[in-house]
Amino acid sequence: MRIHLLKRNIKLVILVAAIFVTMCYLAGIYGLKPQNSQLSDYELVPMYGGHRENNEKPSPFDDYDDPFSSSLITDLKVYNKVKGNKCLEQRDFVFIKTMKCATQTMVQIFRRYGYRRHLNFVLPRGGNIYLGWPYIPELQDYRPSKRPFNALAEHSVYNETVMKSIMPKTTHYVTIIRKPFSQFKSSFHYFNVANISRMKTTKDDISEYLHHLDMYETFYKTPAASATRYCIPDEFSVTKNLLSHCLGMPLGFPAGRENITSQSGKVAEYIEMLDRNFMLVMIMEYFHESLVLLKRLMCWSMEDIMYHTVNVGQYSYKDKTPDPENLKIYKNWSGVDFLLYDHFNQSFWKKVKHQGDDFFDEVKTFNDIHTRVSKYCSNLEEGENSMTILATAFSDHFVVTKEYCVMLGVDLLTFLKTRMEREEGWVNQDTGNKGPKRGC
Ligand SMILES: *[C@@H]1O[C@H](CO)[C@@H](O)[C@H](O)[C@H]1NC(C)=O
Ligand SMILES: *[C@@H]1O[C@H](CO)[C@@H](O)[C@H](O)[C@H]1NC(C)=O
Ligand SMILES: *[C@@H]1O[C@H](CO)[C@@H](O)[C@H](O)[C@H]1NC(C)=O
Ligand SMILES: *[C@@H]1O[C@H](CO)[C@@H](O)[C@H](O)[C@H]1NC(C)=O
Ligand SMILES: *[C@@H]1O[C@H](CO)[C@@H](O)[C@H](O)[C@H]1NC(C)=O
Questions:
Q1: Is the separation of the CB atoms in 386 and 70 below 8 Å?
Q2: Is the CB–ligand 4 distance for residue 332 below 6 Å?
Q3: CA 349 – ligand 5 centroid, Å
Q4: Residue located nearest, by CA, to atom 9 of ligand 3
Q5: Ligand 5 pocket check: which of 282, 327, 342, 345 to mutate, most ligand atoms within 8 Å of Cβ?
Q6: Are strands 85-88 and 79-82 parallel, antiparallel or unpaired?
Q7: Is 165 a pocket residue for ligand 1 (Cβ < 6 Å)?
Q8: How far, in whole angstroms, is CA 381 from its chain's centroid?
Q9: Domains plus CATH for the chain?
Q10: Which of 81, 166, 219, 350 could be disulfide-bonded to 197 (CB atoms 3.0-4.6 Å)?
């Protein structure tokens, strides 16, 4: 029995690996020669976004070996169970991926959601992973599509005008933020700030940095350090009001852009605008509460908000409570992010309150299911072929398969790109951009 199961598993892994290699290969071919015959095929692809009625039942996967075929959802309208009632799933969204706020985990949820429903994603060109970030997105940053877009989840700076011009009216905007000092420590580590700003080894890099901000910031941002900063352009700060920058606040980058950093009235106004335009600003400190709120507001299922933790940085100063002196300096340095955080933490809890008492029952239910799914998916060799999660007051029953577990872990960006190349005959071209570095 064991051996039999093991064989099945090996087969599954080999299958997924083989498909992956094939897809990379296809991506290579499609990148080299135009496949004009593919151009007409897009008409066959259904849109599930709700802004195009499509009653026919096309089969978009006829000539396409989808690695996750048994996980695909092809129903045009799906009603999920939210607070004991049924409501219609919302399928158009923009997720603004702020830096170092569990966004890798979140983006996997959004990609998987859209992949399974064949949504049309705004995707970076070529091998890029950013939609122009840290610049406001422009056409040179994404792959245009012949179909309307439903979804945007890759790294992008929010800009009301640009987003409205790309996305349908029915789009729901979502983002996630975290306590600014924790976010700073995580960015400091991730962007290799100590090393790039030529800091000598110290006992407490964070403290050393904060006590000589101008000096280290200057080093970090110079063209001389450009090669070690990879995706970060000259003159861009990765430690100062980064959350607000990602949400599109004009803070003086790139050169020539308005800088409202010290105009508290304008900052407050901008935050109010975000509050109006975003359906939900998730808070990393309350991650499961945030996911359940997302589920309820979008009318998604429990299965949709499941996740597998990825991209968790390990660094020694991670869990330390901030030294009051350091916190004070940082608050002075990156004050706009503190205003942003306080505002959205307040509005988050207002939204939770609005949900009623059973909200926390649902969070508890989600915690339990998440624990079971994580355990099952971490031990695929030993376990049964699938696991059934029974219906609860907040969710319908669903079956967790090994394929679903694999999908929780793989980088679906590659799959989304390949699918678009297949279906739209998209060919990567040099955009001829001669401007500043927008290479990631
Ligand atoms: C949004 O983008 C447009 C076009 O690039 C620009 O004119 C506008 O200033 C931007 N808005 C903000 C708030 O930066
Ligand atoms: C710091 O940078 C130097 C050279 O720039 C490199 O050799 C070294 O490995 C880096 N250290 C870390 C921890 O990244
Ligand atoms: C914007 O203004 C603030 C102070 O008002 C300044 O500290 C910051 O460096 C400016 N940003 C840019 C990118 O120049
Ligand atoms: C706050 O920042 C300003 C300049 O940005 C600086 O002159 C001042 O010394 C800082 N105050 C503290 C307490 O760090
Ligand atoms: C967020 O707001 C709640 C409710 O006002 C408060 O109790 C909590 O301390 C705040 N959380 C953080 C991390 O500031």
A1: no
A2: yes
A3: 8
A4: 252
A5: 345
A6: antiparallel
A7: no
A8: 29
A9: 70-191+232-376 (3.40.50)
A10: 219
User: What is the position in ligand 5's atom list of the atom closest to the CA of 345?
Assistant: 1
Does the beta carbon of 253 lie inside 6 Å of ligand 3?
Answer: yes
Tokens matching residue 84: 């004991």
Helix count (H) and strand count (E) of the chain? 15, 8
pLDDT in tens, the chain (440 residues): 444 544 455 444 544 554 444 443 333 333 322 233 232 222 233 333 333 334 333 444 445 677 888 889 988 899 998 888 899 999 999 999 888 777 888 999 999 999 999 999 999 998 889 999 999 999 889 999 999 999 999 999 999 999 999 999 999 999 999 999 999 999 999 888 988 888 888 888 999 999 999 999 999 999 888 888 888 888 999 999 999 999 999 999 999 999 999 999 999 999 999 999 999 999 999 999 999 999 999 999 999 999 976 545 555 555 678 899 999 999 999 999 999 999 999 999 999 999 999 999 999 999 999 999 998 998 888 878 899 999 999 999 999 999 999 899 888 999 999 999 888 887 776 555 545 556 68
CB of 345 shorter than 6 A to ligand 5 = yes
User: Do 121 and 45 touch, CB atoms closer than 8 A?
Assistant: no
- Taking the alpha carbons at both ends of the chain, their separation in whole angstroms is 48
